[in-house]
Each structure stands twice: as C-alpha cells, then as structure tokens.
Fold these 4 entries.
Entry 1:
Amino acid sequence: MNADDTSKDECSGDSSPLPSGTVVHTRAPAKLNLFLELCARRDDGFHEIDTVMVPIDWCDEITMSRTSTPGVQLSVDWMPSKLVRSQRLGIADDPAAIDALLGIPADETNLVSRGLVRMIQRFGIQGGFRCDLRKSIPAGAGMGGASSDAAAAIRCAAKLCGISAQSPELFQICAEIGSDVPFFLGHGNQPLAAARATGRGEILNPVPTAGPLDIVVIYPCVSLSTAKVYAASQVPPDPQAADAVVSALALGDVGKIGSAMMNRLSDPARILAPQIDEILKSVWRGGYRTCQLTGSGSACFALVNSTVEASRLASNLRAKFERSSNAGCGAIVETARTTRVPSIVSIQ
Ligand SMILES: C[C@](O)(CO)[C@H](O)COP(=O)(O)OP(=O)(O)OC[C@H]1O[C@@H](n2ccc(N)nc2=O)[C@H](O)[C@@H]1O
Ligand SMILES: Nc1ncnc2c1ncn2[C@@H]1O[C@H](COP(=O)(O)OP(=O)(O)OP(=O)(O)O)[C@@H](O)[C@H]1O
C-alpha cells in the first residue's frame, strides 16, 4: 500500500448514500510508536502520554455492505489462513497457543462491532452491516490492529450511508472506543503520515515527514495486554518530550530518529514477556540500536536506511527467530514501510 491509496474524495467529504447492495473495501494499516512517554497517571485509570505514531503498510482488510437486518454480522479470518499463520509461528500443533495468539472475537466485543453499533445508534441508521474482516496485523502486539479495524469499519459505514468522512461524530465514536482509534481516522481533510498524540492518545497533531521510512518488524510469539503493561509501568519524575523525534522525522534522518526514539513501556513489557528482551538484545548486538518496542508490545521494530537493508536484516532475523511449524514458538519477521492514514474506501 502506498500513500496514493489515500482517496481524495474521502478527504473532500463529498458523501451521498450508496445504492443498496453496494460493497466497499478498505485497508486498516498498523501503527508503530517511535516515541512513547508517560507524563502522568490520571484518576480515570488512564495515563497522560506523549507519543509519536506512524502508520505502516502491514494492513488488515475490511469488506462491508449494508443489510436490511438490524445489527452487525461480522466474520473474521486470517490471511492467507489461520493454519499458515500458526505454522509460521510454530504453534500449528498447539491449540491453546493458536487460541491465545490467533483467537479474534467475532462478537460484540470486536472493536469493529463496537464501532458499527455506535454508528447505527448515533446516526439512526436503518438496518445494519455485514463486515468481513481479514486479519494480518498480530493482536496484542502494540500495532493497533483492533483500533485500526474499528476506524476503518467506521469509515466504510460512513461511505455506505452518505455520512461525511469529516463528521465530528466519527472522531467522537473513535475516541470512545479506544485511545489509539482516532489516529487511524487521519486528521481533518489531510492524510496523516505521522502524528504526535497527547491526552490518553486521542489529541492529535500532524507531524511533517520527509518521506517513507523503511522498517523491519519482529512479532514474537506472545500477546501482551495493554492494560497489564501500563499497570506495570512507572511515570518518570522527569518525563522526556517528543520534540527531538518530531524534528528528526521532518528531516527524514534515520540516525537522528533512532537516537531520539524511546518507549517508556519497554521495560515493563520486557519483564512481562522475556521473548521481547531476547529479541531486542539480539538486534542491538547486530548493530541496530534503532530497534525498540512499539506501543505496549509485544512487537519490536528497527528503522533501516533502505529497502535493501530491510530485506537483508529481515532474512538474518528470520534465520534466528522464525521456527518451522511445531518447533516451538517462533516469531514473524516482516519488512514494512511507513504509509498514510486513512486509506481509500473503494467501491467493489
Ligand atoms: C499503548 C498505545 O497503543 C500507544 O499507542 C496506546 O496508549 C493504547 O491504546 P489502546 O490500545 O487503544 O488503549 P485503550 O483500549 O484505550 O486502553 C486500554 C487500557 O490501557 C491503559 N491505558 C491506555 C491508554 C493510556 N493513555 N493510558 C492507559 O493507562 C488503561 O488501562 C486502559 O484501560
Ligand atoms: N478487530 C480486532 N482485531 C484484533 N483483536 C481484536 C479486534 N477487536 C477486538 N480484539 C481484541 O482486542 C485484543 C487486542 O487487540 P490489538 O492488540 O489488535 O488491539 P489494539 O489495542 O488496537 O492494539 P495495541 O496492541 O496497540 O494495543 C485482541 O487480543 C482481541 O482479543
């Protein structure tokens, strides 16, 4: 997926209800946190944070249509299949691990369902939606998969029902569903290549970038609870600011970005999941100090200088961390590039 996938009409807000039977499709990109600081613990159980996020072209896919039947009919599957994913993770013969890592709810607890139910209620939409969600983004990885899916489904519903993509209610619904969700809506009329988020993560300021960044993502065979990682974290006495990362992003200077990167949730996540510690130390020993945890984990990522370097690092890390099936938990290593959100909502 590249930046051109951002639809112009999606940004112009031209909307009228689509004919009955129309099917729309969009991608839901993952995100990485180049910087994440804890500024304070709030009385409502959340933290004031200062974070810089970039969307990447590792995406889930959503296909949606309206139904005359009220409610949300949701199907969830993995790309290319749950079996292939379990084999790549080395858990094909471990039903408990498959459930823990690949078990995605298809009921009202799925953030896609939560978002669509709120759309139906907030806009008095007649009937309901059918949504087919095809997963690629690992869950419990700190990559914003569920949040991105929710924002993508909300944008598809808006397109189907002739609701402007700029309607403030869309942002409100996203902010109600989760702290990461508003980021995936983009920012006003402009596609978003990077954002600095404060509050609990819902207050967004676009960050200028010099162009796409090349990345290697390593997802270990473990799913981490965001709430548990935050609960195990400490607010520092002197929180760092994201200004250095923001300036380096504008320059597109990978070395400068790398030396300004930081994630305050890394230490608690490494204690909760020692696999993360093993991966980080191994990649750092390989000379990639730009490698760090994203969000609340468990995935880690390294910034590199080119797609060639990304391919080379990824093949080295696959040899080290990926297992054949049934050889015990491994990891999934993928190259990626930063992109922009939201992606186009296309009519099938
Ligand atoms: C770690 C990040 O992914 C970084 O982008 C986000 O801060 C988390 O965003 P998210 O997964 O959408 O989180 P939410 O679903 O809103 O909150 C899940 C739980 O994480 C904790 N949480 C989340 C956000 C925040 N600013 N402070 C918190 O302490 C709270 O215990 C909350 O109940
Ligand atoms: N659409 C969805 N995709 C994946 N998981 C979902 C979805 N809806 C609800 N979930 C549940 O939410 C849990 C967390 O999923 P995920 O990690 O993708 O969420 P997130 O909060 O957006 O991302 P992050 O890991 O950055 O916090 C999953 O383990 C799953 O049980």
Entry 2:
Amino acid sequence: MIYIGIINVSDRASAGVYEDIPGKAVVGFLTEWLSCDWQPVYRIIPDEQDQLEATMIELADTEGCCLVVTTGGTGPALRDVTPEATEAVCQKMMPGFGELMRQESLKYVPTAILSRQTAGIRNQTLILNLPGKPKAIGQCLSVVFPAIPYCVDLIGGPFLTTHENKMAVFRPKS
Ligand SMILES: Nc1ncnc2c1ncn2[C@@H]1O[C@H](COP(=O)(O)OP(=O)(O)OP(=O)(O)O)[C@@H](O)[C@H]1O
Ligand SMILES: Nc1nc2c(c(=O)[nH]1)N[C@H]1C(S)=C(S)[C@@H](COP(=O)(O)O)O[C@H]1N2
C-alpha cells in the first residue's frame, strides 16, 4: 500500500476551533488525481516545532509515507515554525517547490511572499509545505504535483500514477 501523510499544523484546528478544511482539501485533491491505491495518514497538531518534527519523523520512518504534505505555519508570525521543522528533519532541501508555489500564489494574492513554504527529502520521503489558507491548497498543490511522482521515483519510493485527464505528471524519458 502507498501511504501519504497529511499534517494540519494549526493551533486553532488542533484545538477544535476550526474544522480541518485544509487537510481535507489535500485528501480531496489526491483522491481526485491519483489512480494508484493509496491511504492517507492523517494528523492535526499545534504549531509546536518539537511535536511537528516528531510527527514528520513518525509519518516518514514508522508509517512509511512516501510523501508528507503539511498545511499551515509557513508565515512570519512568531508561532509559524513549519519550514524550520521541515529543514530540521530533512537531509536535503528542495527549494524549487517553494519558489514555484510562491510564484503561482502571487497571481492570486500580493501576500504570497509571506509564505516561507518549502520542501525537503528525509530518506525516502518527500515533505512538502503548503500555506494554511483553504484556498491556497489547490493553487499550490496543483502547480507542483506534476513533478512529485518523478521526485518520489528518484528517492526510491513507490510508483505514483494519476488520472491523466485530471492531473498530468511528467517523467523524463531515460
Ligand atoms: N478551517 C479553516 N477555515 C477557515 N479558515 C481557515 C481554516 N484553516 C485555516 N484558515 C485560514 O488560514 C489562515 C492560516 O491558517 P493556519 O492554519 O496557518 O493558522 P494560523 O494563522 O497559523 O493560526 P493558528 O495556528 O493559531 O490556528 C488562518 O489565519 C485562517 O485565516
Ligand atoms: N495561494 C495562496 N498563497 C498564500 C496565501 C493565499 O491566500 N493563497 N496567503 C499568504 C499569506 S497571507 C501568508 S501569511 C502565508 C503564510 O500562511 P500560513 O502561515 O497559513 O502557512 O501564505 C501566503 N500564501
């Protein structure tokens, strides 16, 4: 089975003040796009760096997720520590993901540059940050997703397939 982790990083969602709209949106897009069998491994946690690092490590190392998507905690506010946690648990950073998502988000909001969203590799897991705004989820995930299956191939993960009419992915011919 292919496992994909989804972590909603939000003080308010973890306290039950918000319904977890961003996390559910990630599951919704992946369900629409992926044609392979997969299962979500789902967590909602507060913006606490230690807890976030421990959760990323658990989903990558123990649950065996090939991809972990976080939502929220990427901004400049004091409690926003998702990029720091991502960097702390990854051996390799993948700055192109953040660059492309910010460029795309700028088409929608001038505050796109306030997100420090990034991505990185922990062993055989790609960890990807999305902003917490529900609308940002699809805008950001759809623009980077075409490169994700090949990235997962390159780190020795499972072969992710998609419905071509919903989400066309790109794998260079070897
Ligand atoms: N379920 C939701 N419903 C409506 N808006 C949401 C929801 N989740 C997040 N947002 C919006 O996205 C913004 C950023 O979300 P994020 O989860 O990073 O929260 P935050 O601003 O860090 O606040 P906190 O961590 O205290 O909950 C929120 O300020 C809010 O405007
Ligand atoms: N596509 C998109 N990107 C976005 C936004 C948005 O509404 N749509 N909001 C921005 C704002 S206002 C902030 S503060 C940062 C960080 O959001 P986060 O703390 O919820 O991760 O994301 C930015 N990126």
Entry 3:
Amino acid sequence: MSEILTQLDLLQQQIPVPQWYSVLPAPIRVVLWVIGLPTLIIGLNVFRQVALPRNKNLPPVVFHYIPWFGSAAYYGEDPYKFFFECREKYGDLFTFILMGRRVTVALGPKGNNLSLGGKTSQVSAEDAYTHLTTPVFGKGVVYDCPNEMLMQQKKFIKSGLTTEALQSYPPLIRDECQEYFANTLGINPSRPSSKKVDLLHAMAELIILTASRTLQGKEVRESLNGSFAKLFEDLDGGFTPLNFMFPNLPLPSYKRRDVAQKAMSDFYMKIIENRRKGETDHEHDMIASLQGCKYRNGVPLTDRDISHIMIALLMAGQHTSSATSSWALLHLADSPELYESLYQEQRTKFGNPDGTFRDLTYEDIKECKLLDATIRETLRMHAPIHSIYRKVMSDIPVPPSLSAPSEQASYVIPKGHYIMAAPGVSQMDPLIWQDSKVFTPTRWLDEAGVAAAAVEQYSKSEQVDYGFGAVSKGTESPYQPFGAGRHRCVGEQFAYTQLSTIITYIVRNYTMKLEVPEFPKTNYRTMIVQPMNPLVSFTLRKQEV
Ligand code: HEM
C-alpha cells in the first residue's frame, strides 16, 4: 500500500489536483485513482469517437469503450453476430480495434475480393500469420518464407495429391473407420451395439488416424498410439487465439509447443533418413512425393523443409476436417429424414442384393450427389475459419462500391492495418441464400436454385495461376469455405475424399441420435469454429457391412 501511495504522490506532483484531494485519507485516494483513471481514459476515448470529427478517408471505426482492448470481447464471443451487427451500422467496410491492432473488415463478395484477391505489394498473409504458425510448423516454410516460395510449396503439395493417390485412399480410410468404431469405440455385434460419444473428440481421433494412414504415411500412423499423439497435443496447444494475440508469453504451453515442434520435426527427419537408407518400406505418400521436389531455381527441398511442410499439412487438415465432419454428422443426427435419404442414396447406387454394400471408390464419391450437397451445406453454415487476416503493406484504395453511400470520399485502408475477410458472412447472407440459417443440403441439388447458380457463376470465373496450377480466381464468390486467390486451400480434394468416406461408412453402418436437448451451439473461442458439447449416440444397423 505504501509503495502504491508513493507512486500516486509522484503522479500527483505531475498532475494538478484540487486542494481537497490532499486531505483525503490514503485508502480513499487509492480508490479514487483506481476508479478515476480508467473512467477518465474511457471518457476521453468515448469523447474522441462521438464528438471529434473523423477522417473521412478512413473506414468508420466500431464504437468501443476501452482503448487498445477495443471490440475484442464483442468480436471474440460471436464473430458473426459482431459482423452482421456492424454491417447494419457501418456497411460492408469498417475498422475495429483488437488488442492494439486496427483491423479493417471488408465484407461481401467485393470485400472478399479486396483482401483475398489483393496484390502481394498490398496485402501479406505472411506478416499476418508468421508469429502464430512458424513456432508450430517450423522455419523456412509456409509463412516463414517469401510468398513466391509458398506458392511453389503449394505446387509440391498438389503434386503429392494426384488422382492416383486420392484413388488409393477410400479403402484405407474405411479400414481405419472399421477399426475405430469396432475396437476403440467398441460398437460391434459382440458387445452392446449402441454408444454415446463426444462427436468432436471421436472425429478428431478419426481424422488424424485417417490422415496419417493416407497422406502422412505409414510411420506416422504406426507412431500414433505412442509419443506422436503427445507431441501433437503439445504442438496443437500452441495454435490458439492466445498465441495469435500474444506470440511470446512465458507460459508452460508456449514452452511445450517449442519442445514439441523440435521433437516432431526430428521425428519426420528420422523417417526421411531411414527411408533414404532403404530401411523402411512405404507407399508413395506425401513425404515420398516431396523428396523429389525442387524450387524453380534448382534448389531442392531440404529434409527439414519437408518435415515442416508435413507438420503444416497435419495442422491445416486436422481441426478443419474434424470440425466439418462433426457439424455434418450433428445435422444428420438432427434430421432422421435426411439421414435416411443418404442411406437410400448408398443403397440405390452401391447396395448388393444381400443387404451389404460394395466398397466405395474415389470415383463413386462423385456419384453421391446428396452426400456432396450435405458437405457443401455444412461448410456453408459452419466454415471452419471465420476470419482470414492479411497485413496491409501499402495503402489500399477502396473501390467506391464498398464505401458507404452517404460518404463523399472514397476510403483508403492504410498501411499497418490488418484487412480481414469473413467469407462466412456472405455464405449466410439472407440476401443471397434463401432461409440462410436453415440447413438445407437440397439447395445444392436444385439446378435452378439461386444460390447454386450464384456460386456457379463465380466458380467459372477467370482462371489464374498463382504458381501452384491454374485455379478459378473465385475471390468474388459468395461461397468460399476453402478461401480464394493465392492462399486458396490445396487440401480441398483430400478433405472431400476423407469426409465423404468417413460419413459414408457411418451412414452405411450406424444410425445416429442427438443426445443433447437442443442442437449444439458454436464455440468461437478456438481457432476453428467448433460445436459445443456435441453428444450423439451411434447404434449398429442390423447387418455388419
Ligand atoms: C474441410 C477442410 C478444410 C477447410 C475448410 C480448409 C480451409 C482453408 C482456407 C479457408 C484456407 C485459406 C486461408 C487463407 O487464405 O489465409 C486454406 C488454406 C490452406 N489449406 Fe485448407 N482447409 C481444409 C483442409 C485442408 C487440408 C486437409 C489440408 C492439407 C492436406 C489443407 C491445406 C491447406 C494449405 C496448404 C493452405 C494454403 C495456405 C496459404 O496459401 O496461405 N487444408 N484452407
């Protein structure tokens, strides 16, 4: 207390205070400072926003009480509520304060185009994300290298995901599902045939099992029951909103992340070394594919680069796909009619007369239109990534169509801001999608449907090669769960193969029931949008398939 009072007395000498203040007892003086100073700061901040004229060339700033902290709580609790409410007030372009950062949100297809379609001289993903990703993935790859190198790394990844590779995955994924449901979850004919499970937990396990069996390779799959799982958990603990906001805190989780990164990187290095010595047999998986890759200037990927790319792929696919499969299955558990229709789709196309099914192939997946529509609709309503950030590297002039109609001048997003795309907003925009909040897979089957047509119109847009093969630019599409532009996802086809095979396995073999009174709410406090308390039960169908 005496230390505090000395400090206050020093402060008092700097700031003129009224006579009566000095006669107050010490505890009252402390209380006055504790209440008075924040009130003054908040008051000045409010005054500045409501009473002082604002720079008409800058986007409007979301009203907030606390400087520096800004709208962090409002945004963090439910980003979509925040985006939609701010859109009502400020239009498609506005800036908010997020723990000292100035983040300009650009909404709608035009807004998405501004950030996702921006030139590298104007926007940078590297500068927005490297503090989060480099300690997890490792150095020299993804956002720890020039953008032009990332584009080539994406090309290498794509070359490891050939049609031939993808064709080999469904049987492997099916085997993993069979093993997981029968043995890990214990739902098989010899035991009680119904079980209540936390879906998100189960899907997280199934996604890492199936990704390691296919894309990651035999050695990773074999290590999953041992040390690898713990390393993954520690590394994953470094991939949180806290790490995004504060890259270097002296917390145990940050230490564990760093130790795990080194250990996991060494683990992949060992795999590569052993393979090179010819000590292990393996399939032609992603590691094997990356081993042959060289940058355009002739420099080959080092073993360390390969290890770090493998970690990046593991992390990129894990939560995105486990959240997507969980949401899709939750909707199926919530809608017995849709579940039955999916079952009938399987029966009609692949059912044998004896009640069994023939094995699903990669080509078959394309035939399952309702399944495809279910996954698309899941990604429309539950895009795993709600906010896509870029750092603004040079002033961005905003096209007049994005400035509020009442404003006279066109806006500029200044260098040093972050620009954010939130494709989920256009994906749930009631002006674009009929009954936008209702899960309706059939909207994707209706050829004349407004939404499908709008998406089609954009997906057939200009083809661009950013360095990893021609892709449709798609930056103005109202549907972008896999992003758009130069940072567009290269794991989409893998994810679809994995998700389709897992859901098919479940639909063919089990019925499902929601085990919570209402459809699970969304948890936005994790990096990836996840369901809260997603309890369901699986019951074995009559015949084992
Ligand atoms: C449902 C599953 C998935 C969804 C919804 C998804 C979504 C996305 C999105 C939105 C982006 C763009 C990020 C940005 O612009 O900053 C992205 C990029 C990327 N994703 Fe995925 N992803 C999924 C699965 C996967 C999988 C399985 C892999 C790996 C096999 C993967 C690898 C990547 C890579 C390498 C990038 C490029 C990052 C960049 O260029 O900056 N993703 N993903």
Entry 4:
Amino acid sequence: MPVSLPATDSPFYPFPSPAKLNLFLHIVGRRTDGYHELETVFQFLTLADNIAIKPTTTSTITLLTPIDGVPNDDNLIVKAAKLLQAETQSPYGAEIKINKLLPMGGGLGGGSSNAATVLLALNVLWQCKLSYQQLAELGLQLGADVPIFIHGFAAFAQGIGEKLSPVYPDESIYLITKPQCSISTQQVFTAKALTRNTRKLDNNAFDDKTYINGYHNDCQNLVINHYPEVAKLLAWLIEYAPSRMTGTGACIFSRFDSEEEAKRVQKLLPNTMTSFVTKGINTSPLHSVLQQLESEICT
Ligand SMILES: C[C@@](CO)(OP(=O)(O)O)[C@H](O)COP(=O)(O)OP(=O)(O)OC[C@H]1O[C@@H](n2ccc(N)nc2=O)[C@H](O)[C@@H]1O
Ligand SMILES: Nc1ncnc2c1ncn2[C@@H]1O[C@H](COP(=O)(O)OP(=O)(O)O)[C@@H](O)[C@H]1O
C-alpha cells in the first residue's frame, strides 16, 4: 500500500549499511592540502551494519543506540542527518537505531557507509530529492569513502576516492580477519615512510578480476613494520589463500573459491580473533532497498 512520509506514526524503516574492501590501494601522489591521491578498486561485502530509521515531523535527530567510544554528536550517523537537514532546510527529524557489526577503524569503511546510508535513506524519507551526485559531494565532507557508498557500484576510484568508474571484480568469498589493534587513517597518511609515488595505472583495462596479482596496498608494508600482530597474521593467512590488507588497515581479506574452504580456515583462528566469512558484491544491497521504498512512497 502506498505510504505518505513523513507522518506522525511512521514506522522504523530498515536499511543495510555494507562494508567495503579496497582490493588494492595505490598511493600515486599528494595534493597541496595534504590529502593523498589514490588509485583503488572498491568492492562491497554482504557483511553490513543494520540501520533503522523512523522519520519524524519534528526536527530533532536522535540516535537511540549510541556506539561505545563514539559520542553521539561525533557519530557520522548524526552528522550525516544534520548535514542533510542543513543543506535542504528540511523541517523533519529522525529517530535512528544501529546494530553495529562492522569493526571500527579496520579499513572496512563502516563509518562512511553509515553516513551514506543515512544520507540516502533520509533523502527518500524526507523527500529531499537530491541527486546521487549532490549527496556524494555533501558526504565527501564527512569522509573520503562516502561517495562510493552513495553511488553503490564497485568501482575503480581515483582522486581521494570521488572519481569513480564501474568495474566488475569477481564476486569472491572472503575471510575477513581483524588483528587486535586499531590503526588510525591519519596516522598512516602522516607516516614519513609511506610510499606515495606508485605509478598511475595506464588504463582501466584490468586483466585480473581478483585484483590481487599485479596490484598491492601501499599502506600494508608500513603497517606490517609497526604492528607485528598484523605481520604475523598476514604471513599465516598467505599460506592458505591470497591475502591483503584493506584500506589503511588493520583488517585483512583472504580470497577463497568456496565458503566451505573459508570456514575451514576460519576455524583454525584463535577464538579471540574477530573474523567473518562473507562475499564480495558489485552492487550495494542498500540500493535495491531504496528503490523498493521509493516505489511505495506517495509524492
Ligand atoms: C584510506 C581509505 C581508502 O578507502 O580507507 P580507510 O582505511 O580509512 O577505510 C579512505 O580513503 C580513507 O577515508 P576516510 O577514513 O573517510 O578518511 P577521512 O576521514 O576523510 O580522512 C582521515 C585523515 O586521513 C588523511 N587522508 C585521508 C584520505 C586521503 N586520501 N588522504 C589523506 O591524507 C587526512 O589526513 C585525513 O584527515
Ligand atoms: N557510525 C560510525 N561507525 C563507525 N565509526 C564511526 C562512526 N561515527 C564515527 N566514527 C569514527 O570513525 C572512525 C573510523 O571508523 P570506520 O569507518 O569504521 O573505519 P575505517 O575508516 O578504518 O574503515 C572510528 O574509529 C570512529 O571514531
């Protein structure tokens, strides 16, 4: 049945907020503002946080499920909602809940993904009608990875992650492992020893659809040299499957041909280690949910 929004009795609408992998991450230069120019391939994972949003007719933004260690006002969920409100002068508000499954600060892009999910969902629920391009530009203020989650297709990204061309990597099974250390993106990018002059790729005609052979992650050696637990885990995983760090770390993804094989190796990990068996996907699961919602809403 068609619904009108926002309404005083709106329900909570559920939205996935998926993780991303950087299948490779080359640093090809540095801008005058200090930000690094990257070349990377982003792919989404079926592994996702779950966000539920109830649009309200008053302007308050409330996060009902605070995340440990992140004050609500610093939470990218709240920041994204307020940014959209300010940009569109929307009179509406929202109550928001999150079931946080993605490890934070692990290079899986959870914070940027949460921000993108909130921007896209409220754009529909508040009927703001901003385009994906406008939402991506807005979201870039919150994090360099927000645009990929807004556009929702696997992509070769340049610039700081905002210049996107679609690519179609193999949708492989991955074992994701999180070493017990948290690595700040800023710390990696300010390190003197970071390689910043990888040659730009000549064209977008990629041969290896796993993006493993012939590519690398420029942050990986730096992280390995400073965090022995990452070095040890990576060395162990490589014996079982092609493995690489995502983003600025510290999560590692290992590519398998089957879920059974990935689960077999997962069982060999220490019980204390956070790990997931998940699948790479080339379209964000959020976008089909949004399309369904849009088709149900009266304008
Ligand atoms: C490197 C990437 C690759 O996907 O992944 P993560 O490992 O963080 O997920 C991202 O570009 C990260 O994006 P994000 O985590 O949103 O970074 P931001 O909050 O925008 O920036 C954090 C800090 O890192 C530095 N930074 C970030 C991105 C970039 N291309 N160059 C930089 O120098 C800046 O000093 C900035 O202040
Ligand atoms: N909703 C959110 N989810 C995750 N992290 C958030 C959120 N809001 C703010 N943050 C902050 O962003 C930092 C980076 O988180 P995240 O995006 O998960 O890592 P990464 O950039 O390594 O992929 C966290 O350590 C946290 O302080």
